[in-house]
Amino acid sequence: MSERSSLISPAGGDWLRPFHVEGTGVRGVIVRLGPAWRTLAGRDAAPPALLGWLGQCQAAAALFAGDIKLRGGVSVQMRAPSSVGTLFAECTDAGTVRAIARSPRDARPPASLADVGADAVLAITIERTGGLRYQGLVPLQGDRLEHAFEGYFERSEQLPTAIRLVATDTVSAGMLLQQVPGEGGIGARTASADFERLAILFRTLTDEELLSLAPETILRRLFVEDDVRIQPERRLAFGCSCSRERVTAVLRALGEAEVRAALDARGRTEVRCEFCGQAYAFAGADVDALFRPEPTNGPAPGPTRG
Ligand SMILES: [Zn+2]
């Protein structure tokens, strides 16, 4: 424990740190969520036994958002209808995170991931600003979530990837190591000798180190013989992307009959965001407007020939 002094409580923050290992074609991300994880509103509904997996999903979403350079967000869902329900976590390119457990109150989750049921899957959704959406599904096999995520990158992205996830009641953390596509003349799918070597070192990382050490210290300890360049910290914080427009779209999709059935005695309905608690009220006139046919501005233009 000679490096005790480096334990200067970096666990207090909410951040992600991308890095790359010089000359190897290998990059990575380290993520830690402290206050944001502890105060996540969506946690309240989660049975305590599921908090660990929810926290790991949150760390994974942040890792992937930090790894994939995109305008938009990444969400992760663990779905096991027969035992767990749905765990959902998201991270946007703006650094906002949110998570929720949609589980029956009396859910009795199994002690081990290997027993969540044959219907269990992980879904990884990449949403680009402007609407492009991609979803990958992987079966939830093995005894650790990180192995299922590694399988996703291997099969869907064809990128050799090593992942570590850990979450306690107070801290959620993750680390990813990945071969950069196309570097070093190595084809996709085949791990380079450098990646193999760094991945072996990566697997010596302990949960305790990932939860508590400064990222610079983690990288120095793991890759002592390599030149690792770590990028500046990107702050993460709880944030919700709900809006009246989004809620309106959800109500429209539900259909008029269902929305009218939910109106109270005064002809009003209220929708509460399950992530942040924000309430959106719709009076009778609002509901009428929701389902009024779109006004048309004259006849639709026909095909023109120049
Ligand atoms: Zn919200």
Descriptive account of the structure:
- There is one protein chain.
- With 306 residues, the chain is α+β, with helices and mostly antiparallel strands.
- The chain has two domains: 11-184 and 193-238, Hsp33 domain (3-Layer(bab) Sandwich); 244-290, Alpha-Beta Complex (CBS domain Like).
- The chain has nine helices and 14 strands.
- The strands form three sheets. Strands 1, 2, 8, 9, 10 and 11 form a six-stranded antiparallel beta sheet that branches.
- The radius of gyration is 23 Å and the shape is elongated.
- The chain starts with 13 loop residues before the first strand and ends in a 16-residue tail after the last helix.
- Mean pLDDT is 85; it is low at 1-10 and 301-306.
- Bound molecules: zinc ion.
- The site of zinc ion has 6 residues, from loops.
Round the mean pLDDT to the nearest integer and report it. 85
Number of helices: 9
Ions, cofactors and other ligands present here are: zinc ion
Determine the CATH superfamily of the largest domain.
Answer: Hsp33 domain
Gyration radius, in Å: 23 Å
- The CATH topology annotation of the largest domain reads as Hsp33 domain
Main beta-sheet strand count, sense and barrel state:
6 strands, antiparallel
Dominant shape:
elongated
Helix content: 25-40%
**Cα-to-Cα separation, first versus last residue:** 79 Å
State the low-pLDDT regions, or none: 1-10, 301-306
Please tell me the CATH architecture of the largest domain by its name.
3-Layer(bab) Sandwich
Whole-number count of domains: 2
CATH class of the largest domain equals Alpha Beta
Helix-strand makeup class: alpha+beta
- Helix-strand topology string: EEHHEEEEEHEEHHHEEEHHEEH
